[in-house]
């Protein structure tokens, strides 16, 4: 298995970073080839610019996008680790998707409608939220993430399987509960 792990949190000591450590451990135990993209450490530029569009129209790709697309093409599975801020993922991750999962690479338009160009790939999305489960569900936050990421982005791009899990109320739970969450991450990764 070739796993591309996309990590998006500015604090290297965050609970999301602890999730990243567990994900890497579990993938290593499965003898997976792993590439980790820490978007903040990379100082990834999340802005899809006019220059990017001009290069796409000229059948060219900015160097940073071409490198990321090569890694996505290499991977069997993408694992995304991110907090949810204001009912969505951070701009850094959204910008990564905007720039990397571009038309002509991840999808195309045909006479019969859009067609995903990344068939057979899988994704595992792991998020954390400050909201508890009841609040997150009542607010529509979880439905929005499912609609935009699971059914939107990855299904649109042709992914064969997308699994998603969120860990709720992370800032408010006890260390013991966080430990249980990390144990759950281990089990989640075993299912991908």
From TrEMBL:
Alphabetized UniProt keyword annotations: Oxidoreductase
Pfam families assigned: Flavodoxin_2 (PF02525)
MF terms (GO), sorted A to Z: NAD(P)H dehydrogenase (quinone) activity
Highest taxon above the source species: Bacteria
Domain (Flavodoxin-like fold): residue spans on this chain: 1-187
GO cellular component terms attached to this protein's record: cytosol
PANTHER family hit by this protein: NAD P H OXIDOREDUCTASE-RELATED, NAD(P)H DEHYDROGENASE [QUINONE] 1 ISOFORM 1
Family note: Belongs to the NAD(P)H dehydrogenase (quinone) family.
Protein name: Putative NADPH-quinone reductase (Modulator of drug activity B)
Organism, as annotated: Desulfoscipio gibsoniae DSM 7213
Taxon lineage: Bacteria, Bacillati, Bacillota, Clostridia, Eubacteriales
């Amino acid at each position: 298995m070739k796993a591309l792990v996309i990590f998006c949190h500015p604090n290297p000591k965050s609970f999301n970073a602890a999730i990243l450590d567990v994900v890497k451990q579990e993938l290593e135990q499965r003898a997976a080839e792993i590439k980790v993209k820490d978007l903040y450490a990379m100082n990834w530029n999340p802005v899809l610019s006019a220059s990017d569009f001009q290069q796409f129209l000229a059948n060219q790709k900015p160097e940073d996008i071409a490198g990321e697309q090569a890694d996505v093409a290499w991977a069997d599975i993408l694992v995304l680790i991110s907090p949810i801020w204001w009912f969505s993922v951070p701009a850094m991750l959204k910008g990564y998707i905007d720039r990397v999962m571009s038309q002509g690479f991840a999808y195309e338009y045909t006479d019969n409608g859009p067609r995903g160009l990344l068939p057979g790939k899988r994704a595992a999305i792991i998020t954390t939220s400050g909201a508890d489960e009841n609040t997150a569900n009542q607010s529509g936050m979880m439905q929005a993430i499912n609609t935009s990421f699971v059914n939107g982005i990855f299904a649109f791009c042709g992914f064969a399987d997308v699994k998603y899990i969120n860990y709720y109320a992370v800032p408010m739970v006890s260390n013991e509960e966080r430990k249980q969450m990390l144990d759950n991450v281990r089990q989640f990764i075993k299912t991908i």
